[in-house]
């Protein structure tokens, strides 16, 4: 994420605790619940549970109530993450309930921008790839749904890197 955007985000959430983060993908069964699980694990490892609220949603509601995709759960479990979230559809009221809305790709970002009601809502939208620091050829977190094992592993690699950076950049200084 460029420094000015990061500074703007930090100043907007400065002093706000807990920081409320919502990960968003299409169906809320692969990328966004994995992002939720990865960040939740990092937060717990750092004893910062009281400083964060983490959730996920999808822009498409067809999977509402379902557990994450079994393949994502298997790959995540191998890395120590338990994904137990039940899919839900993003609602415009989520802009009121969360400080940062984190879409996984440009299509999700466009959908969120279309649902935004105010400039403040739009300012809450920060693409996940903005937090990824590792060298990557991707400008988004790709959807692994129609991919093999490598696709799920890539998503987890990107999310682990991005969530570590998100935590470092936004956590209170005592963590």
TrEMBL record:
Has the keyword Hydrolase been applied to this entry?
A: yes
UniProt keyword terms in alphabetical order: Hydrolase
Specify one Pfam family: LMWPc
Q: Read off the InterPro entries from this record.
A: LMW-PTP, Ptyr_pPase, Ptyr_pPase_sf, Tyr_phospatase_low_mol_wt
Q: Which SMART domains match?
A: LMWPc (SM00226)
Boundaries of every Phosphotyrosine protein phosphatase I domain copy? 19-169
Instruction: Please provide, alphabetically and separated by semicolons, the GO molecular function terms listed in this UniProt record.
Output: protein tyrosine phosphatase activity
Q: Where is the active site?
A: 25, 31, 143
Positions the record marks as coiled coil are none
- Similarity comment: family membership: Belongs to the low molecular weight phosphotyrosine protein phosphatase family.
Q: What is this protein called?
A: Phosphotyrosine protein phosphatase I domain-containing protein
Q: What organism is this sequence from? A: Muribaculum intestinale
Which lineage do the record's taxonomy fields give for this organism? Bacteria, Pseudomonadati, Bacteroidota, Bacteroidia, Bacteroidales
């Amino acid at each position: 994420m460029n420094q000015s955007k990061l500074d703007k985000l930090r100043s907007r959430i400065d002093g706000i605790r807990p920081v409320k983060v919502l990960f968003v993908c299409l169906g809320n069964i692969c990328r966004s619940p994995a992002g939720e699980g990865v960040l939740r694990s990092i937060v717990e490892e750092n004893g910062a549970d009281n400083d964060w609220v983490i959730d996920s949603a999808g822009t498409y509601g067809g999977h509402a109530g379902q557990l994450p995709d079994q393949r994502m759960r298997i790959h995540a479990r191998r890395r120590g993450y338990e994904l137990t979230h039940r899919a839900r559809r993003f609602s415009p009221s989520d802009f009121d309930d969360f400080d940062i809305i984190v879409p996984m790709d440009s299509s999700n970002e466009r959908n969120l921008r279309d649902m935004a009601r105010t400039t403040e809502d739009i300012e809450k939208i920060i693409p996940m790839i903005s937090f990824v620091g590792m060298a990557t050829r991707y400008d988004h977190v790709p959807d692994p749904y129609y991919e093999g094992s490598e696709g799920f592993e890539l998503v987890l690699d990107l999310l682990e890197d991005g969530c570590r950076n998100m935590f470092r950049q936004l956590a209170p200084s005592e963590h």
